[in-house]
Every structure is written in structure tokens, then in C-alpha cells.
Amino acid sequence: MSTHPQRFEILVVPEHVEGRDPAHLAEDAIRSAVVEATGETGVSGYPRYVGEGMEADIDPDTRTVEALLVDGAELDYGLSVRVR
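Predicted structure:
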């Protein structure tokens, strides 16, 4: 059985809100999704999480998103992603 979290909430936010408390980032998010573990490893080498149009490879120890597709496309410039 995996010791990694089975789900995360991903927030897509404009870059200018970087550094804000994750609890308040939801107010500024232009999109959010709850992603669940697939049991697979992504090309980045980290566990793959999928849900609500997002596909992410997340380092569960640091909660860093190593790779992300939103509706099958990479994130647009000027946007960043945070895990909550």
C-alpha cells in the first residue's frame, strides 16, 4: 500500500499572487481541481494524479508539481500552479 497522499487539490493562479498563503490562494485561483492518484508514475518520475481535466506529476514529499497538463495542454505563461 502506498504511503503517498491519494489526492491533492491543485490551484492554477496568476504568477503575481506567488508567495501568498495557500489557504488564501483559492480566492485568486482561476481554476482548481481535485486530482487523485492513478498508481502510475509520470515521465518526471513522480506519482501521477488525475482529475477534473488536470493531469499532474506531483512530488508527494514536497508537494511540488513536476509536470502538469490542463485539458491536455501545458500551462499558459503568466500562470503558476500550487498544491493545497
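Summary: The beta strands are 7-14, 31-41, 47-51, 54-59, 64-70, 79-83.
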